[in-house]
Every structure is written in structure tokens, then in C-alpha cells.
């Protein structure tokens, strides 16, 4: 190897590569991520918040709601297809998207840029929270699909820890923000609201909607920790006897006895 | 009476792989002076504020009236055109740095070639070449002209790309300027011939899907292009195009 040493060429940074026209499938994966955030994940979030709202009516009503959901046909298939797998994909692909973005909020502290950054932080809060929430409430402790009436007590015990309560409140706000701004982003990025005015109007709608979800969510949390239903029993009513709840029995008893008298 | 002066701090780099250094300069204030006129003065008389002779600064500029797109640089941290950056409106010392997202050539000069590669990748032109006289083009209605004119104002300054959190080496995002030009040429009655090609190109890796809608582009654009509107519209068109391609097999 007796070749003369070439003078080292200056190391020029290659910079951002040009568009790879017609290459790759990232368009599909991005759009899937975006769509899953609305349906089914957003739709499930709505269902979840509405179901949680039943907690304001007490342990029996909350347990009945949990039992109803677990009585849906093919419920385990629904759970995996429309909740766990979409959540996992949306969460992990979201982290991938976050890692590839370079936030520059320091230099450009503009409203849209703040929202862009907030969407990433609320997303990671949501992912971490949902990870522990699903593990502890769905797969650990009392098996709620088997014992739905113990749902209120299980959540109440979880929220008895003030740290956990703080986690739930922060996560509730972060997730509702993420979903509300996610709807706005979806409309903007799928070309539903191309105009400035349309985006602004939808922005107000999403803000109001997000606020409503937060209020509903926090109200549900209050139902567990507010002291109205202290020390809810692990199984407030045997699951079979709920259809003939204690209260209606009082008024139906005379009718029942008269009916027996008539028939006898 | 002491003369009023203007302080500048300029980030300098002798070559792409040389270390970056800051140098301070002090100029006599003149009414209506802008950053690019100050750069010219410093290049003509390269003496730092503490009296040391230095090399003349290198920068891109041409028209001096925000129409050529050459003199984009970071002024007090923000990407903007140096020609329209009036010194009187800026906090001193005025910090001048090169754009950060493009390979540095020297001092304030960067290589913004990627924008032209992207414009070529999406065929951002109206094809009129032929072996015979093609005659007059189709009529463009005034309403269409009004809609297209703002998009035609793009000066390829790359400010929208510099300020975009998604435009970086990891994503290889195409940037707002190219997407706006796709809308412009797709709206043109003759340019429409490449409409499907342009939309398919924008669905490639680094395409329109990488947009995170931080909307910095539209804030930074010195020519007020409706960039977010273009991104939204073209996103829908790309989606429809991909759906059609999928269903047609």
C-alpha cells in the first residue's frame, strides 16, 4: 500500500435528506396512528369516562355498569382488538414520533408550537399512566370480569393512596387534553378543517369538549374519594340478586302477597 | 455628542468542520439600517469591536428587498430575512447566526440545496415543453388566480423548514414550502397533468405525514403564505389519492 496519502476532505454534514418520493410505508403507519387515536381509542375513552360517571350513583350502579360491559358479546375479543392493541400501537408509535421531532419551543414560543410540545408530553403521561392502570386494575388484584360488583371498592382502595390520587388527577387532565387536541389535530391533518377560521372554531369546540371531559372525569374521581360511599364493600351485592335490588322489594312485597292470596 | 452605535454578535465558522466562534462588531447607527446592510458594512471593513482585524464575513444575499430569499439567517435566535430585519426593531447586541438545519458552508452561508431537490421530487413546475407550438394554455379564472397568488409568493428562503420541529435529519421531512408549491401547481390547469405524481411523491418517506402541525411555518413565513391551509388541503388530496390507488389496485 504505497499510495500517497490524500489530503483529508472537509467533513461536510450531509444535512436533512430530500423527500423519498414513492418510497416506504410511513404514510400508512402515520395515518393509522392518527386514526386509531380517534377510533377506537378516543371512542373508548368516552365510553370509559361515561361509565366512570356511574360511580356518582354509588357502588351498586358502578358495579352494574362494569358487569354490563363484561356481558357484551365477545368481550375479550373486543377488549384486545379495540382497546389494548390500538392503545399499544398508538402509544409506541407516538413515542417514536416524539423521539424524531426536535422541539424548538425555546426559540419559537408560539401557541401552535406549545400545543405540539404539550401533545407529546401529555402523550407520554398517558402512556405511562395507562400502562400501570391496565396492569393494576385489569390484570392484578380482584379480577373484575369475574367479580364486577367489587369494582367500586377496588378503585376506592387504589385512590386511598394520596400519591395514586395525584397520579389519577394528573393523568385525567393530560389524557383529556391529549384527546381534545387530538381531535383538532386530526381535523387539521386530514384536511377536514383547512381554513384558518374553521380551525379556530373547531379549536373552541375541542377546548369546551376537553373541559367537559376533565370535569366529568374529576367528578368521577370525587365519587370514590369524596366520602359519600366510605369503605364500599368488596362485593356490595351478589351479582345474581342485583335485578331484584333491596329497595324495590319493599314495594313489591305487598303486591306479591296479594297475588299469592288471589291465586290461593 | 457621542455617535450612536449598533452592537452585533456574529457566529463565525471558517469552514464546515472548523469550530464556531462568536465575534462582536460595533457599527455607527444610521437611520433605517437593516441587518443585511450591517453585514455588508462588516464584510467591507472586517474589524471587531475591540479593534482586531478579522476575515470578511460570508453570507448569502441578493435583492435586499425580501424577494430573492437568499439572506435567511437566525437573528436574535429566530429565523428571518436579514434584509427586512430593521436594526431599530431589534434588541441589542443583535445576535446573528447561520440557519441550523442546513449544511454550513462558511460563516452565515448554508447550503439549502435540499429544497430544490424536494421541489424536483414533486415536479413543482408547469410542463410546457414540446416539439411543436402548443398554443395558448387554458384560461385561468380570476378566482383561481386570486387563490394561487399567495402560494406563488414563496421565495424559497427555507425559514419554514428551519423553524419546523419535524424538519430534521431523523424524519427527512419535506417541509412546508414544497407542500405549498404542490398545491400551487396542482391548482394550475396545465400543471395539473402531474397532480397524481405530486401527491404520490408526497406520500413517500419524509412526506406530508411527518407534519406535526406545530404551525411554526406559517408564523415564520416572511411572505405570509397560507402554509397550514396548504398542508391541510394537500394532506386530504394525498389521502384520497392513496385510497384511490389502493382501491384501483
Range of strand content of chain B = 5-15%
Question: In CATH, what is the class of chain A?
Answer: Mainly Alpha
Topology pattern of chain A, helix = H, strand = E: HHHHHHHH
CA gyration radius of chain A, whole angstroms: 26 Å
Annotated CATH architecture of chain A: Up-down Bundle
Largest sheet of chain A: none
The assembly state of the depicted protein chains is heterodimer
List the helices and strands and how they pair.
The complex is a heterodimer of chains A (264) and B (249).
Chain A: H1 26-53, H2 59-70, H3 75-100, H4 111-139, H5 151-159, H6 162-189, H7 196-225, H8 246-263
Chain B: E1 5-12, E2 21-28, H1 35-44, E3 72-75, E4 78-81, E5 94-97, E6 104-106, E7 109-110, H2 113-121, H3 142-152, H4 159-162, H5 176-187, H6 195-202, H7 216-220, H8 227-248
Parallel strand pairs in B: 1-5
Antiparallel strand pairs in B: 1-2, 3-4, 3-5, 6-7
Task: Provide an overview of this structure.
The complex is a heterodimer of chains A (264) and B (249). With 264 residues, chain A is mainly alpha-helical. Chain A has one domain: Fumarate reductase/succinate dehydrogenase, transmembrane subunit (3 helical TM bundles of succinate and fumarate reductases, Up-down Bundle). Chain A has eight helices and no strands. In chain A, helix 3 packs antiparallel against helix 4 and helix 4 packs across helix 6. Chain A is elongated and about 80 Å long. Chain A starts with 25 loop residues before the first helix and ends with a helix. The relative contact order of chain A is 0.11. Chain B has a five-stranded mixed β-sheet with strand order 2-1-5-3-4, with helices on one face. In chain B, strands 6-7 form a two-stranded antiparallel sheet. Chain B is built from eight helices and seven strands. With 249 residues, chain B is of the alpha+beta class. Chain B starts with a strand and ends with a helix. The chains are: A mainly alpha (264), B alpha+beta (249). Chains A and B meet through helix 1, helix 3, helix 4 and helix 6 of A and helix 2, helix 6, helix 7 and helix 8 of B.
Amino acid at each position: 500500500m504505497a499510495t500517497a496519502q490524500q489530503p483529508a476532505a472537509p467533513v461536510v454534514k450531509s444535512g436533512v435528506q430530500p423527500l423519498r418520493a414513492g418510497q416506504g410505508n410511513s404514510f400508512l403507519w402515520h395515518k393509522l396512528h392518527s386514526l386509531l387515536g380517534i377510533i377506537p381509542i378516543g371512542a373508548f375513552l368516552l365510553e370509559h369516562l361515561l361509565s366512570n360517571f356511574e360511580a356518582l350513583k354509588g357502588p351498586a350502579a358502578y358495579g352494574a355498569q362494569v358487569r354490563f360491559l363484561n356481558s357484551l358479546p365477545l368481550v375479550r375479543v373486543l377488549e384486545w382488538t379495540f382497546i389494548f392493541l390500538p392503545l399499544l400501537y398508538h402509544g409506541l408509535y407516538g413515542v417514536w414520533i416524539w423521539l424524531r421531532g426536535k422541539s424548538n419551543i425555546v426559540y419559537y414560543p408560539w401557541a401552535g408550537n406549545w400545543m405540539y410540545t404539550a401533545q407529546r408530553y401529555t402523550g407520554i403521561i398517558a402512556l405511562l399512566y395507562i400502562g400501570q392502570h391496565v396492569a393494576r386494575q385489569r390484570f392484578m388484584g380482584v379480577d373484575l370480569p369475574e367479580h364486577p360488583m367489587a369494582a367500586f371498592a377496588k378503585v376506592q382502595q387504589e385512590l386511598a393512596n394520596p400519591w395514586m390520587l395525584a397520579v389519577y388527577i394528573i393523568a385525567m387532565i393530560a389524557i383529556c387534553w391529549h384527546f381534545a387536541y387530538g381531535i383538532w389535530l386530526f381535523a387539521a391533518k386530514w384536511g377536514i378543517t383547512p381554513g384558518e377560521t374553521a380551525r379556530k372554531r373547531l379549536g373552541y369546540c375541542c377546548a369546551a369538549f376537553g373541559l367537559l371531559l376533565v370535569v366529568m372525569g374529576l367528578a368521577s374521581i370525587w365519587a370514590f374519594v369524596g366520602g359519600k360511599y366510605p369503605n364500599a364493600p368488596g362485593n356490595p351485592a351478589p351479582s345474581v340478586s342485583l335485578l331484584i335490588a333491596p329497595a324495590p322489594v319493599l314495594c313489591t312485597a305487598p303486591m306479591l302477597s296479594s297475588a299469592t292470596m288471589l291465586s290461593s | 455628542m457621542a455617535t450612536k452605535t449598533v452592537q452585533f454578535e456574529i457566529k463565525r465558522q471558517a469552514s464546515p468542520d472548523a469550530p464556531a466562534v462568536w465575534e462582536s462588531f460595533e457599527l455607527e447607527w444610521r437611520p433605517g439600517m437593516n441587518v443585511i446592510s450591517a453585514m455588508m458594512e462588516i464584510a467591507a471593513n472586517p474589524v471587531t469591536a475591540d479593534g482586531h482585524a478579522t476575515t470578511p464575513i460570508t453570507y448569502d444575499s441578493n435583492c435586499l428587498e425580501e424577494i430573492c430569499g437568499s439572506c435567511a439567517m437566525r437573528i436574535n435566535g429566530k429565523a428571518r430575512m436579514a434584509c427586512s430585519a430593521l436594526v431599530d426593531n431589534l434588541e441589542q447586541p443583535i445576535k446573528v447566526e447561520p440557519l441550523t438545519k442546513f449544511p454550513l458552508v462558511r460563516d452565515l452561508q448554508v447550503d439549502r440545496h435540499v429544497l430544490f431537490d424536494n421541489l424536483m421530487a414533486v415536479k413543482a413546475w408547469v410542463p410546457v415543453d414540446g416539439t411543436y407550438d402548443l398554443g395558448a394554455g387554458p384560461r385561468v379564472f380570476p378566482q383561481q388566480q386570486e387563490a394561487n397568488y399567495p402560494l406563488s409568493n414563496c421565495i424559497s428562503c427555507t425559514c419554514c423548514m428551519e423553524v419546523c420541529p419535524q424538519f430534521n435529519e431523523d424524519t427527512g421531512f419535506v417541509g412546508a414550502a414544497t407542500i405549498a408549491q404542490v398545491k400551487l401547481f396542482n391548482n394550475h390547469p396545465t400543471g395539473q397533468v402531474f397532480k397524481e405524481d405530486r401527491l404520490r411523491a408526497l406520500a413517500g418517506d419524509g412526506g406530508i405525514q411527518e407534519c406535526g402541525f406545530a404551525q411554526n411555518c406559517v408564523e415564520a413565513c416572511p411572505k405570509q403564505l397560507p402554509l397550514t391551509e396548504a398542508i391541510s388541503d394537500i394532506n386530504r388530496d394525498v389521502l384520497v389519492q392513496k385510497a384511490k390507488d389502493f382501491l384501483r389496485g
